[in-house]
């Protein structure tokens, strides 16, 4: 039976090279590289060639990672030459991947609360990350002028307005940020000057930027292309145009290589959008039979939602919005059903206690948050997969 170990090295090494990821965190090598190093003697000797020909996009998540990049790109002898077992010999020389492409995650360390706090009636200092921009501007010159960066060809300025932990662990939450008007317009717009200054610093240090012809410019023999990348919502097009114009005023042509993320609000809705979907409109209420129980419930639900403003932005508490976003990312139908039954129970005058169907942790947490916001009490009952939430209406106190 033919196996990869039976192939000649000339065929086996390109196959191993194709198995490596296209991106690599500059702080550490991915697990796939270390796993291949520990498979066998043949693989370990092949990895010298494979890693030396591997040219991933190196991810720089934050300015503090810049100071440690040399140890990441040029691992010490102990890192690669440590003997993994008694049967596998160490490599004769420590290999390192080629350093041709670099991606800077500008807002990897941004605070979620600060991003969502921005608004037209909030001071700029309460949500901008000028200190983070200044840290990038301060640390990048030394980084780009080091010997290890001499082969650099492309620098991607990734301005995705989402914290790093959400991109890594909860990618389904991205649309909730990218399509928020406060984030896509106000938050990014107020960082235009800082990002433009960072791009100008990169161009001056690494010989980046493009000339009018579109070809990369050169400084001291170097040819580096600087691009604006990342993921954005359609409402961020104004920020991109403004940043491009600001770079033009500084003599820099900035190509855009990012992507716009389209979003169907019904496939992963925000809480206020979901509330609008479930709330009866007046025209539909008029079509119901007068004095019927269905019409009374519809009118009560309409009054509840509009009196509290739950169909408008920031009317629901921010923690409830986050839980709903997480629940809808896992199962949008379950999240919508949970919201529907809690709202309908709130306006039901005949019931005072309601037992929901057994559900997972996230949906149960959503039920707790929704009931709390609607001034009702909750209790979790049952065990394991049969655990459910019981909702009790609090007694009304007379004022």
Structure characterization notes:
Strand 8, helix 12 and strand 9 form a beta-alpha-beta unit. The chain is globular. With about 400 residues, it is of the alpha/beta class. The longest helix has 16 residues. Helix 16 packs antiparallel against helix 18. Strands 1-2-3-4-7 form a five-stranded parallel beta sheet, covered by helices on one side.
**So how many helices?**
18
Along the chain, the helix and strand elements come as: HEHHEHHEHHEHHHHEEEEHEHHHHHEHEE
**Roughly how many Å apart are the termini?**
84 Å
Please state the average pLDDT score.
80
Radius of gyration: 27 Å
> Mind summarizing the main beta sheet?
5 strands, parallel
Describe how the helices and strands are arranged.
Elements lengths: L8 H10 L4 E3 L5 H7 L3 H13 L3 E4 L8 H5 L3 H5 L19 E5 L6 H6 L12 H15 L9 E5 L5 H6 L4 H5 L2 H9 L2 H15 L11 E2 L2 E2 L1 E5 L1 E2 L4 H13 L9 E2 L10 H8 L3 H5 L6 H16 L9 H13 L1 H16 L5 E3 L5 H13 L2 E6 L6 E6 L6
Parallel strand pairs: 1-2, 2-3, 3-4, 4-7, 8-9
Antiparallel strand pairs: 5-6, 10-12, 11-12
Helix pairs in contact: 1-3, 7-11, 11-12, 15-17, 16-17, 16-18, 17-18
Task: Describe the structure using short key phrases.
single chain, 18 helices, 12 strands, 399 residues
What is the gist of this entry?
45% of the residues lie in helices and 11% in strands. The protein has 399 residues and is an alpha/beta fold.
